[in-house]
Design brief:
With 550 residues, the protein is α/β, with parallel strands linked by helices. It has 3 domains: 249 residues, Rossmann fold, CATH 3.40.50; 158 residues, Beta Barrel (Ribosomal Protein L25, Chain P), CATH 2.40.240; 115 residues, Ribosomal Protein L25, Chain P, CATH 2.40.240.10. 26% of the residues lie in helices and 23% in strands. It has 13 helices and 25 strands. The strands form 6 sheets. The protein has a 7-stranded mixed sheet with strand order 10-23-24-25-21-22-11, with helices on one face. A 7-stranded mixed sheet has the order 19-16-17-18-12-15-20, with no helix packed on it. A 4-stranded antiparallel sheet has the order 4-5-6-7. α7 packs across α8 and α11 packs across α12. It binds one RNA strand of 74 nucleotides through α5, β6, α7, α12 and β19.
Length: 550
RNA sequence: UGGGAGGUCGUUCAACGGUAGGACAGCGGGCUCUGGACCCGCGAAUCGGGGUUCGAAUCCCUGCCUCCCAGCCA
């Protein structure tokens, strides 16, 4: 059953026998990293191909040598693969078709449907007219076929400098659709292309290369975003006027927008180049690489893409939905572990000095097959500073003087005293434990109101934890002219000495954990065997935090 | 003011002439050795005005609002 209007079209086409198999394509330009918006398109294109038994091509739209680099192409392949999709044998490049595209351009010239124009870029703009006024025809519009052919061949041969000539389609300078006012098909660029090297001095425009590349690859459904809707008449014109082997159709859907986020390539590039983030894969970036490093799972991104749906209406998705999607997945698969981010020492005064007990605790209560592990308990522990209040307000159920709480999987403890430094800051808590509650349950059935996570001081390993918050302060950072002014100064907070239970020692890069009661964390690739570094993927919902805020 | 597209809970997707539904967010409750998760519940929408029809979010007319287009970018 179709779940969106594009799948409805695909089903109808298949049902009507217009195509025997569905072929889609994901056509990134290798001039930047893929972001969450691309993920939507990837999931759509590869998803449809998978669902209807067709295939999806990965095609690099590398028609502009001035902006494109092989490094980006590699990153794109890595990201698509990581998301869980495969193009199989179908890896293509628009640049693979340059020769065919060139021959078709000559065909167009011979059919008097294209001409070489010598107007300057400024003149072409001036001749194009405006949104409300028709354009004027170029004085070169009616060159002879022979002259056009000669000029076009010499353009290819590199005889002319950049900008002197372009090849234009001869359509209609009075069209209300500006894209049909003799659009430029080829321009001269004396530039080295990352794949074709110096073989070409002319390069096709997107509007020319895209539909014809689709046709060459027998694409059935060419899916793109709304801003190309106006280009569809040109797409169709080319398919009709060039002897292509197939007749693909273009369909448009609304791009993904996320609040508190920018996803324009240009702006992401500036964030990287101006050093506002540490790179394309900075965990605060909405790039696939950034989300990966942040600890997002491929499944969570795919689920997110399914949830946001596909339609033509402009939309701004709440980042909370993205966060929900990771939590949902990580809750099922992430191993639980205890870590204390802001340590507060607790001395259990009636616990024997030098003794250690090991307690069994589940690795994932949501998944019994994940098994369990042992955590060491001793006389001196760390608990979270937030988990203690000397004068607890009404709904604060955690530790306070005289109050008993459970330490997860070990014992009930009661706070018996508070030590402060000269400045009045709490430096240590004193407590007693109840030996009868060994393992975490009281024989008399009493239930503490809170269960805290903890780490044995003697056994704890130190680690670095990077806490991320949204990169921008306002919902729509694009709205204000200077989006840099909207950067959140607290988007990264580094905790240099968090305390971790010893079972995590040696965790490999990219391993994901839930720090119980704190959030989901992922081992950063910068981690070493001596020093673990974690990125916070997402917080756990903390009801108390919400109460405290109000 | 030319052309193209779009207006449904706060957000998003659905309902394809027959009870406007789901998800996220919010609020309330239950349960819990994570104040997590989970479970239950609540509030919440068809852009306006006409018309067709037994019946309209859906069809027609009209008005309004929003987005996109004047790169030799994609």
């Amino acid at each position: 059953m179709a779940t969106d209007f594009i799948r409805e079209i695909v089903e109808e086409d298949l049902h009507a026998g217009r195509y025997s198999t569905v072929v889609t394509r994901f056509p990134p330009e290798p001039n930047g990293y893929l972001h969450i918006g691309h993920a939507k398109s990837i999931c759509l294109n590869f998803g449809i191909a998978n669902e209807y038994g067709g295939h999806c091509n990965l095609r690099f739209d590398d028609t502009n040598p001035t902006k494109e680099e092989a490094e980006y192409a590699e990153a794109i392949k890595r990201d698509v693969t990581w998301l869980g999709f495969s193009w199989g044998e179908h890896l293509y490049h628009a640049s693979d078709y340059f020769e065919q595209l060139y021959r078709w351009a000559e065909d167009l010239i011979r059919a008097e449907k294209a001409y070489v124009d010598g107007l300057t870029a400024d003149e072409i703009r001036a001749f194009r007219g405006t949104l409300t006024e028709a354009g004027k025809e170029s004085p070169h519009r009616n060159r002879s076929v022979d002259e056009n052919l000669d000029l076009f061949r010499r353009m290819r041969a590199g005889e002319f400098p950049d900008g002197t000539y372009v090849l234009r389609a001869k359509i209609d300078m009075a069209s209300p659709n500006i894209n049909m006012r003799d659009p430029v098909l080829y321009r001269i660029r004396h530039e080295t292309h990352h794949r074709t090297g110096d073989a070409w001095d002319i390069y096709p425009m997107y509007d020319y290369a895209h539909p014809l590349s689709d046709a060459i690859e027998s694409i059935t459904h060419s899916l793109c975003t709304l801003e190309f809707e106006d280009h569809r008449p040109l797409y169709d014109w080319l398919i009709e006027n060039v002897p292509v082997p197939a007749h693909p159709h273009q369909y448009e859907f609304a791009r993904l927008n996320l609040n508190y986020t920018v996803v324009s390539k240009r702006k992401l590039l500036r964030l990287v180049e101006d050093g506002h983030v540490r790179g394309w894969d900075d965990p605060r970036m909405p790039t696939i690489a950034g989300l990966r490093r942040r600890g997002y799972t491929p499944a969570s991104i795919r689920n997110f893409a399914d949830r946001v749906g596909v339609a033509k209406r402009e939309n701004v998705i709440d980042v909370a939905l993205l966060e929900f999607s990771v939590r949902e997945d990580l809750n099922q698969i992430a191993r639980r572990v205890m870590a204390v981010l802001e340590p507060l020492r607790v001395v259990i005064e009636n616990y024997p000095e030098g003794e250690t007990e090991w307690f069994d605790t589940p690795n994932n209560p949501e998944d019994p097959s994940a098994g369990s592990r042992s955590v060491p308990f001793s006389r001196v522990l760390y608990i979270e500073r937030d988990d203690f209040m000397e004068e607890p307000p009404k709904k604060f159920f955690r530790l306070a003087p005289g109050r008993e709480v459970r330490l997860r999987s070990s014992y009930f403890i009661t706070c018996t005293g508070v030590s402060k430094d000269a400045g009045g800051n709490i430096v240590e808590l004193r407590a007693t434990y109840d030996p009868a509650t060994r393992g975490g349950d009281a024989p008399d059935g009493r239930k503490p109101k809170a269960t805290l996570h903890w780490v044995s001081a003697e056994h704890a390993i130190d680690c670095e934890v990077r806490l991320y918050d949204r990169l921008f302060r306002s919902e729509n950072p694009e709205e204000s002219g200077d989006f840099f002014a909207d950067l959140n100064p607290d988007s990264l907070k580094i905790i240099a000495d968090a305390k971790l239970e010893p079972s995590v020692r040696g965790a490999a890069a990219m391993m994901r954990f839930q720090f119980e009661r704190v959030g989901y964390f992922c081992v950063d690739p910068e981690s070493t065997s001596e020093r673990l570094v974690f990125n916070r993927t997402a917080t756990l919902k903390d009801t108390w935090a919400k109460i405290a805020k109000n």
